[in-house]
Design brief:
- The chain is an all-alpha fold.
- The protein is 70% helix and 0% strand.
- It is built from five helices and no strands.
- α1 packs antiparallel against α4.
């Protein structure tokens, strides 16, 4: 049976691990939402073709590698037309909501990390005792 000191250390480690995983997950979702915003904007304001204004300055082998405009537009995917711009307010709202949530997760992670560090600082041998017992119990 773990002592009263060791149990909270184990719980703090589990809590910190879960918060780190949640931090990574929300960061991934934010990247996806921001990428979707970029695609919606790119669909409405398609960049111009590559190579038109510099073809004379490029070596032939480089100029032959320039993707055709239809190939570039295909990267925007089907359905990235002007109506996707209408989704921008919703996407930006979702990103703001994710940002608030991410800030809360980061704050909770920082608090838990501080509690974990304070716990180990108050009883430095608790971490070693727990690890030793885990290794011996195998």
């Amino acid at each position: 049976m773990p002592s009263r000191v060791e149990r909270p250390l184990h719980d703090l480690r589990l809590e910190r691990r879960a918060l780190r995983a949640e931090r990574d997950l929300v960061a991934w979702w934010r990247r996806l939402v921001r990428a979707r915003i970029d695609l919606a904007v790119a669909g409405a304001a398609t960049p111009g073709p590559l190579g038109e204004h510099v073809a004379f300055a490029l070596p032939l082998e480089v100029a032959l590698e320039v993707p055709r405009p239809d190939e570039l537009r295909a990267t925007l995917g089907e359905g990235t037309t002007g109506h996707d711009v209408g989704a921008l307010p919703q996407l930006r709202s979702l990103d703001a909501q994710l940002a608030r949530y991410e800030a809360g997760v980061l704050e909770a992670l920082a608090r838990t990390t501080s509690r974990l560090v304070a716990h180990v600082a108050a009883d430095p041998t608790s971490a070693a005792r727990r690890r030793t017992r885990s290794v011996e119990g195998r």
